[in-house]
Design brief:
Largest interface: A-B, 88 and 88 residues
CATH superfamily of the largest domain in chain A: PurM-like C-terminal domain
Distance between the termini of chain A: 25 Å
Helix content of chain A: 25-40%
CATH architecture of the largest domain in chain A: Alpha-Beta Complex
Number of domains of chain A: 2
Number of helices of chain A: 8
Order of helices and strands of chain A: HEEEEHEHEEEHHEHEHEHEEE
CATH class of the largest domain in chain A: Alpha Beta
Oligomer: homodimer
Strand order of the largest sheet of chain A: 9-11-8-12-10-13-14
Number of strands of chain A: 14
Structural class of chain A: alpha+beta
């Protein structure tokens, strides 16, 4: 292996290997969480007065290369804002600010740019963030595909919040906030010209309010993650590995829209590996799981929330799926690439 | 005009129009400064205790699409780190953290990736920042040109620092920290296969220490800017417009390496519009200009620093160049595109 393959961008096994072998030695990236959390006391600056109460900020970055740029339920603009807002939410931060940087191909239609910027503005408003800095680069025709958008974000954390993919505990219940596969199938159907009835819409949306409701109810959330690239399967496998727990989930509890299920059947996709955007999975102490579920279901973005399984002490690092017909199978990370350029 | 043209990415007039007509209505971008400055009191979060002393943070973002990705004196990795570090420095911030997001074309050589990451790591160390979060996307062959890198940065500001392109004052002296045109000519020579003797090297480098020395000496710096895309001419015109002052500079005082001058003569470029990376221009009260210059010249990155002119009360918003042969000409922003993909 001496060249970058599409699979390196899949969010799955190859990407993890790339991060471990190439990025980790070069950068100070300590966890695979969606955002880095840094205490202001680490700023090591004489500009913060010593008697100032320190607090924690979260930083995250993501570039969006989704193809096509307009798809049922959203576009690259709303996706770029929501995705970064949600990455901040997943470490328990309240999103504050984002920056936006666009790489545009020469010849791109200004009307499309206007639509995308307007959709970014709306998404920022919905997500509770301000877009405070921007940048635009233009490359010659054929040197980029229409438009790529980077958003980077900053959020602030409550003192009592301590959420990480590495903090799931044995006995935790696992809640999933909504149906899986919608974003991936929506983008793919638009790209390939498939028409589903009813149409499958992307679930791109900000999880700011949902997470704020959840954290108002309890600070005892251990792990939280939005299963984007690599799908629910990859996300659960990451948490099992990072936390050193086993995970058991029940196939017949995982909510999937019938149209998404139908599309996956026809196209040979496993919905467990299809990308999502506007859902989250949360690991929480068993004795408050039902009450948290009630809180979540009051939010329209989590009305389908359900407990899908638990973290166990058996087979640490392994995700087991109890299938609908009663068997058990091991769920691994996505290997290779299922749907390139899904976000 | 209904499509994006290369000139929209030039840093010049077309980009300013694009920002004014498209980005400003959608985003909360209040100034054209290199970074947004936000007081923590604006965070409007109950998570910061009321008795916590507020402080100011700077946020910035830039995507780098330079072609070729390796050039004399640097590569896209060092450029991406230095560029964002310097954007933070230009508002007087001490750079703290950056994020890095890569868009890579399928088939890109892993050896080249390794070189670039290593050069980012070194640049971060030199610039005094930590790379705390990252992201990688891969697009199909032919859908991006090798590799694009976004870096976004966070810095912290001293209470007494108040620097903006809109704060230049009549009577200010204008100091330029080094020779102009080196980066643009270095990239262009590599791209086109020209060989200059002596070779022209990019001046990509972090200005963290230089700016820290300057701000230790005085907080009375009014405007500071690194003249990147659009060159020195565009930067000065931006400051003249934003501050409502006239600017008079003296052609024979502007330092240019003889090899850069020769290359510009042969190729028909005006060095005033060629991109730089590792120099800055600073507007400071006349009575401390000479002393600041002495401070700057002690730093190896500013050994060629020189006063090139002053802000005047005449012809506000206009930049006048006193030419070597005694005439005066008006200097406008770059119009159209001189050298695409220079950063």
């Amino acid at each position: 292996m001496d060249r970058i393959l599409l699979g390196h961008g899949s969010g799955g096994r190859m990407m993890h290997d790339l991060i471990r072998d190439y990025f980790a030695p070069a950068f100070e990236i300590k966890t695979l969480d969606d955002a880095a959390v840094i205490n202001t006391s680490e700023f090591n600056s004489k500009l913060i007065t010593p008697n100032s109460e320190p607090f924690r900020l979260a930083f995250t970055t993501d570039s969006y290369v989704v193809d096509p740029i307009f798809f049922p339920g959203g576009d690259i603009g709303s996706l770029a804002v929501n995705g970064t807002v949600n990455d901040l939410c997943m470490v328990g931060a309240t999103p504050l600010f984002i920056t936006a940087s666009l790489i545009i191909e020469e010849g791109f239609e200004l009307n499309d740019l206007k639509k995308i910027l307007s959709s970014m503005r709306d998404a920022a408003k919905n997500g509770g963030v301000r877009i405070v800095a921007g940048d635009t680069k233009v490359v010659n025709r054929g040197k980029a595909d229409k438009i790529f958008i980077n958003t980077s974000g900053v959020g602030i954390l409550d003192d009592n919040v301590n959420i990480s993919g590495s903090k799931a505990k044995i006995g935790d219940k696992i809640i999933l906030s909504g149906t899986i596969g919608n974003h991936g199938i929506a983008v793919m159907s638009q790209r390939e010209g498939f028409v589903f009835n009813p149409p499958v819409l992307s679930d791109t949306r900000p999880l700011t309010r949902l997470c704020s409701d959840m954290l108002s109810f309890t600070k005892e959330i251990h792990s939280m993650r939005d299963p984007t690239r690599g799908g629910l399967a990859t996300t659960l496998k990451e948490i099992a590995s990072a936390s050193g727990v086993g995970i058991l989930i029940h196939e017949n509890l995982i909510p999937i829209d019938s149209s998404v299920r139908g599309a996956c059947d026809i196209l040979g996709f496993d919905p467990m590996y299809v990308a999502n955007e506007g859902i989250l999975t949360v690991f929480v102490k068993a004795d408050i799981a039902e009450a948290l579920l009630d809180v979540m279901r009051k939010n329209p973005y989590a009305k389908d929330a359900v407990i899908i399984g638990e973290a166990t002490g058996a087979q640490k690092g392994t995700v087991l799926l109890q299938t609908a017909i009663g068997g058990k199978r091991i769920v691994d990370m996505l290997s290779g690439e299922q749907l390139p350029r899904i976000c």
